[in-house]
Structures are given as structure tokens and as C-alpha cells.
């Protein structure tokens, strides 16, 4: 065998060894990404951004904002984005998570309005992946909107970002979203929420639900899995309709996996309160972030506008001064019986397809 043949064989062996190493490294990388971002199967990018050419003044640091879009309340997410965008000069980038059947409707709506110049990315949500993580009880399923679980997967939906904001769709922002984004999170905290005891707006009892200001209103403290955590039942709860997330800490602490653990455990042990009136996304968040979250300025989450008596609880002057309004509760601002619908109407953009129309009282 000549020296040239030997060299060729050696080169071939080195090449094969190199390919094997590369393949193994890729597999390890894939496993690592899945470990840090196991929910990647929930995301199907949909044609990227609707507006690749944002307005010149919107350059600079990106402020990622995640919302969800349900077909029967699509006008809500449009109004929310419109209010955020037109009350700031910051470079806001929206990520909207929707079911596959909603995407075309949302795209058409946005493309025919003034929001067509806004940076918006639409991602498709796959609800079947939650079949083993939610209760099979029909009553529970009726009151749950699977899209609300999107907030559990913030690092997956907004990869590469160090910080992000999640907003419920029944929200109007009247302040500069950059101020909310700049909220300081304490060291080691993966998220900031609005505590339910932080203002007079949160006091009271929600009809049929018992006390929804503390942990006992959301969790069953008679269950062993809850007892052994040593949590105080009267601890003030928080509202997860607005979240400021440190995504680096979120991934480091495996927050998503912790939330999934409690979701799955609840399907076997029924850990949530029997009188739970709010979203079933709240209990897992309360468990994971017990005394381990920062707080949001109360004016940046004025809530309960969708509950009975909201019109008596707040003055018009206070509502105008609030930086973020949240119609959590039964009565939504696109419905007939809600309070302060005029504030929401200011930011609503009519649906060019005519499919979504707010319901309003007829004048006598």
C-alpha cells in the first residue's frame, strides 16, 4: 500500500470521525434545547412578521409583548395591541399566539388597518399537547381556555429575549409600555405580578368563588401535596393577567417544567380549590411563584373592571389616570353590560370582515 493511499484512508477515517462527533453534538444540542424549551412543539411560525418594515422611530431595543388571540374575542387582542402601540414610541414587537383556524382572520384584519406597519409575529398553538396536563372534568374544560396556557411558555414563544411582557387580551394600555417593561425585578425572581392585596381595587369577594384575594381561594389546603409545601393559606394571591418575565431566570429555574408538574399532578390529585372561579392557569403559577416574585406598580394593573359594580368602584377620573386597565371578570368591554366601554371603544379597530362586532346598548 502506497503512502498516498494510506494518507487517503487516514483522511477518510478522520472525516468519518468528525461527522460522528458533529452528529453527536447536534443530538446533544437538540436534547438541550428540548430540555430548556420542551414546549417547542407548541409553536408553528406563521410567515414571520406581517410588517418587516417598521416605522423609523421604532428602532432601538425591542420590547417583546406576548398576547393570545381567540376567535370569539379577536377584537380584544386588536384593541390591546393598538393601545400599546399608540401610547409609546418604543420598539414594541408583538407575538400573538392563536389557534390555526384564527390565523387567516387575524392576518386579514391586521393587514387592512393601521396596525399593518406594526411588528407582529403570529404563532400557531397546538392544544392537543395539553391532553395529559389538564383535568378531564367537563365543567373545568368549559371554563378553561387552553390559549391561556401560552404564558407558561414565554421563553419558547420569544426565544433569544432576556425579558418580556405577557398581557391578557381584555386589557387596554394607557401608559408607555416601556415604563412597565423597565419594572425592576429582584435578584433571583423570574417574574413580577400584581398582588391582589395591593390596592382597594382588589378588595372584596367574587360572587360564587369565595375569597379570591388569597391562596385558599385557589388551592385545596386539605391535600397532602399542598400541605407539605408549608404555604400559608391566607397569603395574598396575585393576578397573572400581566406578567413581566426575566426569561433568563425563567429558563435557569425551569419554570415551565415546574408549571407542567403541577398541572399534571392536579389531574391526579385535584389540588385546585373546588370554588375556583378564575382561570385554571392561576393555581400552578401561585404554587411555583409562592413568595418568589416581584411586584408591579398598582397603576400598571387596575383590574376587576369586568366584575359587578366596577362602575361604582372606580371614578372616571381614576380610570383615565390608570396606566393599564384589565376587564377581568364576567363582563367584557366588547359586551353589552361592561363598565367603561367608551375607554375600550377608543382603541378598538372595526373588523373589515364584519365577523367581530362589539355588542352595545341601544339608545332609548
TrEMBL record:
The keyword NADP does not apply. It is a single-pass type II membrane protein. Keywords: Glycoprotein, Glycosyltransferase, Membrane, Signal-anchor, Transferase, Transmembrane, Transmembrane helix. Pfam families: Glyco_transf_8 (PF01501). One of its GO terms (cellular component) is membrane. Its main location: membrane. InterPro entries: Glyco_trans_8 (IPR002495), Glycosyltrans_8_dom-fam (IPR050748), Nucleotide-diphossugar_trans (IPR029044). GO terms for molecular function: UDP-glycosyltransferase activity. It is found in: Membrane. SUPFAM superfamilies: Nucleotide-diphospho-sugar transferases. PANTHER family: GLYCOSYLTRANSFERASE 8 DOMAIN-CONTAINING PROTEIN, GLYCOSYLTRANSFERASE 8 DOMAIN-CONTAINING PROTEIN 1. Belongs to the glycosyltransferase 8 family. This is Glycosyltransferase 8 domain-containing protein 1. It comes from Oryzias melastigma (Marine medaka).
